[in-house]
What we know:
Blueprint: H1 4-19, H2 22-39, H3 42-53, H4 63-78, H5 85-102, H6 106-118, H7 121-133, H8 141-158, H9 161-177, H10 183-194, H11 200-216, H12 220-236, H13 242-256, H14 264-270, H15 282-294, H16 297-307, H17 321-335, H18 338-348, E1 355-358, E2 363-367, H19 368-378, H20 382-399, H21 402-420, H22 425-431, H23 437-450, H24 525-536
Antiparallel strand pairs: 1-2
Helix pairs in contact: 1-2, 1-3, 2-3, 3-4, 3-5, 4-5, 5-6, 5-7, 6-7, 7-8, 7-9, 8-9, 9-10, 9-11, 11-12, 11-13, 12-13, 14-15, 15-16, 15-17, 17-18, 17-19, 18-19, 19-20, 19-21, 20-21, 21-22
Amino acid sequence: MIGTLEWTLLDGEHALLVKGDMRRARERFGHAYAQAEQRGEADALARAALGLGGMWVHEHRTAAAAATVRVRQRDALARLDAGSPLALRLRIRLAAEDDYRTGGQDAIMALVSEARAAGDPVTLAEALSLAHHCVLGPDDGPRRMELARELVGVASRTGRRSDLLIGLLWRAVDLLMEADPHAERALGELRSTLDGEGQQAIESVAGAIEVMLSTRGGRFAHAEERAAAGYERGLAAGDPEAPGRYVRQLAALRWYQGRIGEFVPLLTDLLNSPVLPAMDDSPYAGLAVAAAVAGDRRLAECMLARLRRGVLADGPRTSTWLVSMYAVVEAADLLGDAELAGRAAALLAPYGALPVMTSPGIVCLGSVRHSLGVAAITTGDPGLAVAHLRRAVHENLALGHWPAVALSRSRLGQALALRDGPRDEGAQAARAGRAGGGDARHARARSRGRAGHLPPGGPAVAGGAGRADRVRGPLRGHAAPGGAAGQPGQGDPGRGPGRGIAGPRARAGTGAAGAGRAGGDGVPEPARAARHRDRGAGGRSPAPAGAGTAGRA
Length: 553
């Protein structure tokens, strides 16, 4: 007869591995740990401690919660035979958590080799999956693709469906991050494998990738609807990434809508939120460009100064590094900081063939070539800018990223005008009909930045001074998920990371900040009105960024 402790452990393992319900799994493993500790049952204690780690790495975001779980795992490890499979699994988990926090990978990769030699497929599957989290930087493509490929194969020997799903997920993510044309095919294979029996943790990530693909397609309203729904599902499942993922997805949408200035209050709050992963400086970069667009030069320069010892130094290249550098380049251009733009371009140069993407494929900002072209404009080299931006247009076309295509074409027109003069036919062709409301707003902000007229605390470029920044959305009032074992999530519910984001109940058309100012296709209302005026006068209106550009080269 199965005892209470074993039932609790089995329930936790079922919740985590079969259902992907991270919230219930934490609760059950927390209870199991307490029971096993009281009874002095070492193996049960180790299984509970392993389960508390979750499916991914860094699921416990606050210092207190992470330290609690780490102590429990080390204590459980100390009670085991050092040569047992459970002991190796705990060592793998501890090494992965430490490497992820520091941006390293040596310790976990050494343990992957040890797991291969040990011959236990479950141990090896866990090692491969956890190691993959530690190799998500732009230099790590071949290594992580090999890990994912091996995991898919090992999954056939573990008897756990979750191992196959994780392997297929990582394979799709890896192909996306390398701009492989077969990436969406791999995502389709994952989706077909998920059909029939859901897995909340995997479905949450797959859904976020589909939000990114909708944004690439210029389907802004659809992307925002899907992002909000995914956020709600993630919260229900106890996914610690749900709030930060939602913020990043909305930030990408607002950037292409020319409304990123509306995000200054939200990003300011997010900086000190416990939901942010370790080693993630991207909110500083995002706030720098949002503040520059909104006219707050002091805040933008403050954020960039903080990055000089992080993403702008010779530190680890994490999964958010390329997105951070994209924002740094745009902020440098808005501020007219040629030195910073040149430094960023030198760091980005080896990665020109990659898309600007954050793992696990939830945000894409187009080709790195676009950032290299913008940096060249800022440093006063329009010839180099033209070369980079022409390639960026074609690479963004290959990605099917229509908003990025429109933005790169607009920048190409700017570079051609600087090189050949504003009357040059190439510059006029690149600009005419390519830049929508978002591009126009970015251009106005750039012109103010070059003239040195960014007033501290100036109004947002899109929509006025803070008028809609404080819409209360679905993130408000939620504690940060991923609490200590057996405890509810932590965080200050009155100052959640999503304060200021509109969700399913607070949106109209594009949702947050500015409901009624944009239509269902994500085109800002001022751009739409101008377009209708142009048509009424018999003129030809410019297409909005990311809308109606498909098929135009």
